[in-house]
Amino acid sequence: MKIVRYFLISILVLGSLFATAYFIKTNSKSIKTYETESPFITSIERKTVVTGKVIPEDEVEIKPQVSGILDKIFVEEGDIVKAGDLLAKVQIVPDESSLNSAQGRVNNAKIVLANARLDFERNQKLYAKEIISQRDFESSELGFKQAQQELKIAKSNLQIIKEGSVGGARTANTNIRATIAGTVLEIPIEEGDQVTESNTFNNGTTIASVADLNKMIFEGEVDEAEVGKLYIDMPLQVNLGAIQGRAFEAKLKFISPKGNEDQGAVKFTIEGDVYLEDVFVRAGYSANASIILERKDSILALPESVIQFDRKSEEPYVEIKNKDGSFERSEIETGISDGINVEILSGVDKGDEIKVWNKTEPKKLGEDDEDN
């Protein structure tokens, strides 16, 4: 009997020890809690960034008034010029066919004039002797004067073909001058190159490009989804790739009424006046313009990281912490967002604690104490 009693007592003791150990082990596990975020009052801006470049507002291509060979260039790229300054000179190279034709008209006009002179002188003597009428004499006189005028015109045409102009206008036509004050941006041709005059049927050869670098504009393209939110005189902030750490104020001056399709997306060209102050900017610098499309101040907001979306309805919601530590789902209505914070229109209050659901490792109770 004593053996049985000892055996039972041993079983009870071992059972008690096992139960105690299991209870201690179970309760020694760290209790997990989730980090929370509370709504806060802030300001949110929704921006878009437009990629483009800075170019002169006024850029003029200087073209010749006559065709020929570029004889001399008097300026270099980067030179500052005034309106009327001499840029280059063109040497006329007449077309052989046109030259021969013009020379033939001159020779023919000389023959006609010689014949008209003989006729006039003969009729002048006859009229003095009253052999012919005054009408016949005046007719021969008119023919003589017309022949003189035809020879003059033929000679002028020949001179134009040879020299590009008549009389004192020769120098004006062969000398290429700046039409505006500014900086010479580009000289796309070299001395000895053939140039073509600018006229109604031909754009002509560009001798030089001149622009005022003190008046620069930003030019870029905006997506069709955002162009409806833009308006004239809207403020821009322009950042230049070549000038780090400095932003320039600008004002929107033009929104294209027609879009251009680019790889399936429709974009609209915009332009804005850039205020450069005392900074020298070269034409064609790459630039980004930051545009505030929408702004709200003193609004209730949450980090976008705490917002969850229903898998079926895709409606946004958050999980609000209850007094007992559990979390309760609450549907919310959102407003403006800047990609980091989002406006909360309804569904939570300022004092609520919102579960941060996307943390990979929930924080354990007492973890802060261990770190300290």
Give me a quick take on this structure.
The chain has 372 residues and is an alpha+beta fold. It is 28% helix and 37% strand. A six-stranded antiparallel beta barrel has the order 2-11-15-13-12-16. A four-stranded antiparallel sheet has the order 3-10-8-5, with no helix packed on it. The protein has a four-stranded antiparallel sheet with strand order 7-6-4-9.
What pattern of helices and strands is seen along the backbone? HEEEEEEHHHEEEEEHEEEEEEEEEEEH
- The portion of residues forming beta strands comes to 35-45%
**Helical run tally:** 6
Radius of gyration: 45 Å
Strand order of the largest sheet: 2-11-15-13-12-16
Corresponding CATH superfamily of the largest domain:
Efflux pump adaptor protein, beta barrel domain
| Number of distinct beta strands | 22
Low-confidence stretches: 361-372
Number of domains: 4
By CATH, the architecture of the largest domain is named: Beta Barrel
Mean pLDDT: 84
- Secondary structural class: alpha+beta
Per the CATH scheme, the topology name of the largest domain is: Elongation Factor Tu (Ef-tu), domain 3
Quaternary organization = single chain
| Shape category | rod-shaped
Distance between the termini: 58 Å
Largest sheet: 6 strands, antiparallel, barrel
**Highest-level CATH class of the largest domain:** Mainly Beta
Q: In percent, how helical is the residue content?
A: 25-40%
